Amino acid sequence: MDVKSYSQDITPSIKILGAYGGKATNMALTSLQLSKEVVMDAGNILEGLGNGIKNINHVFVSHSHLDHINDIGFLIDATFEQRKIPLKIYGRKKTLEDIEKHILNWDIWPDFTQINLLGSDLKAIELVEISLGEVIEVDDCKIKAIENNHTISSNGFVIEKNNKAILFTSDTYCCDSIWDEVNNNEKISCILIDVSFPSRMAQLAYDSKHLTPELLAQELKKLKRDDITVYVNHIKPSYKIELVKEIIKSDVLLNDGMIVEAQDVIEL
Ligand SMILES: [Zn+2]
Ligand SMILES: [Zn+2]
Fold first, then answer.
1. What CATH homologous superfamily does 8-267 map to?
2. Which region, left, alpha or beta, applies to residue 224 given φ > 0 means left and ψ of -120 to 50 means alpha?
3. Which of 49, 128, 147, 251 is 20 to 30 A distant from 72 in Cα terms?
4. What is the CA(155)–ligand 2 centre distance, in A?
């Protein structure tokens, strides 16, 4: 899809740039493009967008695990010279603190929050703290952080475009508030949810706070609507063959949902 067509879409959509919870050949890390200027999670922005990286001014981050922040440093590096305004990175307080402390710390990567753009007083990166429930409006998207169940400061997002919305859980274990949001927010037409491990690995799923097909099937009992399309992402590459079979057998991909791949477009 031509990125220019986003704002003119009758049916609003988002594009998958990467859909896995680990890296392997043809399996890229978690990343979504919401509009010409906005991406969510930074697992695979550069390869996912190619030339389109020059338009990206806003990166929303669900949590600070490596598979979700991987490309932040490379994105600012690749676009620094052409950039006229700061690259804004949005996340909850601890997520932003983690990025500054562990990545943009001069040791692992330069601290672009302290580096001026060329010929400018503006910094290359601006960190923007967001809170649960707060709605941020940017480039025709309304983005709301919602509670999930993964790390202390992780969150999912409701992404609204043209009065239609998708709930992106990001990485999560079982979580009532996700389903409360879907049941009560009529604009939501679909959900993109984490299934990382096969059901035989329930203990690891619990310890690392991810879902399995069996857990997702249980979670779907909390869904009180029959019109929600269920998309799955974040498969761990080592379990791909086994997990795809199990997900399909589990009947969790409701209303023609699918296991998403890079370059898929989800219509809201
Ligand atoms: Zn992840
Ligand atoms: Zn994670």
1. Ribonuclease Z/Hydroxyacylglutathione hydrolase-like (3.60.15.10)
2. alpha
3. 147
4. 10
